[in-house]
Amino acid sequence: GNISEERMDEFNLPMYYASPQEMKEAVERNGHFSIKKMVELFEGSAEAYPLTRKTIASSWRAVLEGLLKEKMQLGEEMLDELFDLFTRKHDESSIFEFVRESSFTFVLLKRSTTN
């Protein structure tokens, strides 16, 4: 394709979706921040809030576009092609079927003071 295999291999973006409890534990283990506020903003089932393939692709693009532009030097045309492909692959794959419930948590952190 349009992106060399070497450049693809250099780009690694591991993702993990932590529960609110896991987030709290991770912040406490880190020790550099304290949690000032943690609120679950949205919780719902896939039936109540259906996600279309376009919504999913647009959401991922909003999150990743800046990173892909900076780290992979992708232009608008290449990003359009990438997320069009993502949308098509979404239709062909069952990987997204595991999403039955979703939850978004807002976490307000305060940097710990160090002496």
Automatic annotation (TrEMBL):
Pfam families, per the entry: Methyltransf_7 (PF03492)
One function term, GO molecular function aspect: methyltransferase activity
Protein source organism: Eucalyptus grandis (Flooded gum)
UniProt name for this protein: SAM dependent carboxyl methyltransferase
Taxonomic lineage of the native organism: Eukaryota, Viridiplantae, Streptophyta, Embryophyta, Tracheophyta
Gene3D superfamilies: Vaccinia Virus protein VP39 (3.40.50.150)
InterPro entries per UniProt: MeTrfase_7, SAM-dependent_MTases_sf
